[in-house]
Amino acid sequence: MISYFIQIIVFQLLLLGVYDLFLKRETFFQLNRVYLLFTPIFIMMVPFLKFEGLQNTLNSVVTINLPEILVSNTTQTISTSFVSSEQVFQFIWLTGIAVSLYYFVKKLNRIHQLKKQGEVEKYSDFTVVYIPNTDVAFTFLKSIFLGEYLTQKQKEDILLHEAVHARQNHTIDLLIYEILKIVFWFNPLFYLFQKRVSALQEFIADASVVQQIKKRDYYENLLSKLFQTETISFINTFFNHSLIKKRIVMLQKSKSTKKALVKYLAVLPIIGAMVIYTSCVNEVKGNQTATSKTPITETAPQQDKELTLKDIDKVPVYPGCEGMSNEEAKKCFTQNVAQHVVKEFSKDIKNAEITGRQKIVVQFVIDSNGEIKDVTAKSDFKELQDEAIRVGKTLPKMIPGEHKGKKVAVQFALPILFEI
């Protein structure tokens, strides 16, 4: 999961860079709108795009990281004190979603309260709400909010502008990003994309209005004075101070020529690179048990393609775990391997230098016949390394993993903490 989020952030940064460097100064407003709305949806799909012809053979077996096990001369229980980074991330992520959702609902309620306070005037394709004791001007969905302190001329010009937002459903664009910001609250790029969309919508509305009134009158309206505005990210605010200068500059720009459309081709090599990348590199996609310290990762099996744990039709099955679902078999496998190691690992290793907790990383392969092969271990102490290899070799024969009806070799990495 963490790997997925990192990928979409990097991909977003690349496509946002394309927009800022090549597209945002062009007057192809509707095309830019499509680009900014399509980008987040496409980016979230890219990590799942797999083209077998592009995938690399990185290793001869699939490698799966198992949860860390604690072996102690005082206890023979599997360590459950370790919380995986994935679990911590999920807790923080869900907490952030809850907080973001709370503030989103709070903003919606504020708009609802404004509508209740105001005087409503209905038109065929939108509604105008006149708010007392303020000079705000903004649109939410099909409702246009105008403060009573605005002059009649301002109201007329602003209404032309805000009607464009209402008719073209600009609030929906912003709400899409608002939902993305709730789910991916930790991703600053969604905030930047939403800001670009908001600015673009103002350019679209301005371009429509100046076809109906004089540009000079419109400039005067924008520059007349500083206005109070609602600081809500998913409404279209007429008097957005930070945008006024950009809007005037864009109004003065000449219409982009058709030759400038070539700039949109700049995105193609980047999209191609993204697809190649996601087709060729390892992804972290597997589910973890509660005691795992590292995410489950995989490398390519003996076939000419890369697989993830989710892609394997059947994971290797530990004796006694037969007849279970794939997810249940994973948990059963993990628990039995841990129990076997704790039971078999000698607690009487003699070496005065071995103190405290020492980490050993064991690797072993369950081949296509279910046999335990190629057991290796790494440790700072040879005694621990040799004992880990011995214990690994005592694992029982298992039912091999399968993919597309073929039995495949699977490599496991097992971290062990030996405590004196």
Automatic annotation (TrEMBL):
InterPro entries: Beta-lactam_resp_regulator, Peptidase_M56, TonB_C. Residues 150-251 form the Peptidase M56 domain. Keywords: Membrane, Transmembrane, Transmembrane helix. CDD domains: M56_BlaR1_MecR1_like. This is M56 family metallopeptidase. The chain crosses the membrane at residues 6-22, 34-51, 88-105, 260-279. Pfam families: Peptidase_M56 (PF05569), TonB_C (PF03544). It comes from Halomarinibacterium sedimenti. GO terms for biological process: transmembrane transport. Residues 359-420 form the TonB C-terminal domain.
